[in-house]
Design a protein that fits this description.
The chain is α+β, with helices and mostly antiparallel strands. It has two helices and six strands; from the N terminus they run βαβββββα. A hairpin with a 5-residue loop joins β4 and β5.
Length: about 140
């Protein structure tokens, strides 16, 4: 099976740091794959909050994750802190992709490259919603 590749953007819209908690460590003594998705979720929420949004209210509609790809590049350990850069790109009528570059803060070592597909969703109507114009304008190149 061919390896999955992510073409990361060259510019990012947001950066945050998240320390690795002891609960993020798996039985192998390093950052667990299940914790990585949670850390990406936390970083995405921080980005949305920076612009005054939540996952449940971006200009009146919500977002749901349609897919995710995580490429593990190196191990990370308890006591390290992760620097997470985020870019929003590849808009369609109803969604976009969010790209993540995760590095260990001190060394700069790449730990993870990831991408999550998001769709805009109206929970009251239980259907997809168009990408809000203000959201697109914030992140379009």
């Amino acid at each position: 099976m061919p390896r999955i590749k992510i073409d990361l953007p060259t510019a990012f819209h947001f950066t945050t740091e998240i320390p690795i908690r002891i609960s993020d460590i798996n039985y192998g003594g390093h950052l667990g794959n299940d914790s990585v998705l949670s850390i990406l979720h936390d970083a995405r929420l921080r980005m949305l909050m920076e612009y005054g949004w939540t996952e449940m209210n971006i200009e009146g509609v919500s977002i749901i994750m349609s897919d995710s790809v995580i490429l593990y590049k190196s191990q990370a350990f308890y006591g390290e802190s992760l620097r997470i850069q985020i870019a929003v790109k590849d808009f369609s009528n109803f969604g976009c992709d969010i790209y993540y570059l995760v590095r260990e803060r001190e060394s700069g070592r790449v730990v993870v490259q990831a991408k999550t597909g998001i769709a805009f969703f109206n929970y009251e109507e239980r259907k997809l919603s168009p990408v809000p114009e203000k959201f697109q304008k914030q992140f379009r190149d």
